[in-house]
Amino acid sequence: MDSLIPFTTSGSLVDCVDRKMLVVLRDGRKLHGVLRSYDQFANLVLEDTVERIYHEDAFAESFHGLFLIRGENVVLLGEIDLDQEDDVQLRQVDYALLEQYTKHDAEIKKQKEEVKSQVLFQQKGFCKEGGEGDGY
């Protein structure tokens, strides 16, 4: 009976080793790389890692190589389907060109979150605890 219970621990990552993965971090960064190792805390080691940024119908990549990610910073981890990866209808552009747009988008999002937090505090009594990266 116990063998029918799915893994809910870092042990469930064993099938993901040596596969290309997408990792979304608490700060919103999206990393693509090959999962090489992990531990009981879901700390991850990615190889050939690139950080991707997106804006409208374009994306850009910045190469990071070997990347160690602390498990508590992982929001989402998913395998990339290599057969469908090339079918994505986005055009690749230079990272420096797209970076200014994504920073602007992030600043607008941050301002909206601050306004929302202020309204919730003043009108509904919610506390202002938390901070940068605690949105998940």
TrEMBL record:
Keyword Ribonucleoprotein: yes
Domain of life, per lineage: Eukaryota
InterPro entries: Lsm1, LSM_dom_sf, PTHR15588, Sm, Sm_dom_euk/arc
Keywords: Cytoplasm, mRNA processing, Ribonucleoprotein, RNA-binding
Subcellular location: Cytoplasm; Cytoplasm, P-body
Domain Sm: 8-83
Oligomeric and partner information: Component of the heptameric LSM1-LSM7 complex that forms a seven-membered ring structure with a donut shape.
Summary of the function given for this chain in its UniProt record: Component of the cytoplasmic LSM1-LSM7 complex which is involved in mRNA degradation.
Protein family membership: Belongs to the snRNP Sm proteins family.
Name of the protein described by the UniProt record: U6 snRNA-associated Sm-like protein LSm1
Species, as recorded: Hohenbuehelia grisea
